[in-house]
Amino acid sequence: MCELFALSSRLPTTVRFSLESFARHGGLDGPHKDGWGIAYYVDEDVRLVKEPAPAADSACVRFIQDHPFTSSIVVSHIRKATRGAVAMKNCQPFARELGGRMHVFAHNGDLAPERLHLHLRLGHYRPVGDTDSEFAFCALLEQMRRLWPGGSVPSLDERLAVVTEFAAVVRPLGPANFIYSDGDAIFLHGHRRFHGDGRTAHPPGLHVLCRHCTAGADALDVDGLALASGANQEVVLAASVPLTAEPGWQTLAEGAIVVAKGGKIVATRSPTRASSEARS
């Protein structure tokens, strides 16, 4: 399956990727990777770089390694195609404007198209490509539109309620790990992922780590990913599989949602709970 990564930090940090190495954490060895993409938030906009080709052969990836970007919200996706052709239009993350800011979405899984189209309706937003992931993103934004009539950011409670309802609809349709950001917060949904033999999807599908880093220390330096910090820094990292051996990684339960903002976890929601501790 695909490989997901997200970062939320208190202060903007330099994010340096070696995607070929990073992919090995999720078991994506070899040349079969079908594309990659990284979205770096810059205020309400995003710097989005993606290609429908293996990262190992990419001049863009080499440029990012040598000239890393700085951001406090980052979303990355390495693709192994299950739905849709190997093409730029099907590479993730996907990005759309809503409420005067860019929204970003990345999905790890495989949603049955017929049931997806039956349970989720499109309106203003339409897919450019032909993946189940982009269709789901467009349907999520359609549900979000009512919260964004103007330029102000809706409350976290309102946004989390929409994401929770959306997640409950897509879970029965297939593996549905996803990362969604509106530039203010990151919403992380853990579900099921193919492990081992690749024939059966089961939890966990996403992991989260909270870190506090002192001034002058690297926030993280592992094979494939390095985060630099010039001040006291707080970060939340999310990945399909843990990137380090440290004990702080939190396994998301099937259907759990975690919301990160400013380098902290600010809300959680499980599929069995009727309320959350979200705060705006």
CATH superfamily: Aminohydrolase, N-terminal nucleophile (Ntn) domain
Provide mean pLDDT, rounded.
85
Major sheet summary line? 9 strands, antiparallel
Portion of residues within helices: 10-25%
How far is it from the N-terminal to the C-terminal residue, by CA?
Answer: 34 Å
Shape: globular
CATH class type: Alpha Beta
Total number of strands: 17
Over all CA atoms, what is the radius of gyration? 17 Å
Order of helices and strands: EHEEHEEEHHHEEEEEEEEEEE
What key attributes describe this structure?
disordered C terminus; 5 helices; 6-stranded antiparallel sheet; 280 residues; globular; 9-stranded antiparallel sheet; alpha+beta; Glutamine Phosphoribosylpyrophosphate, subunit 1, domain 1
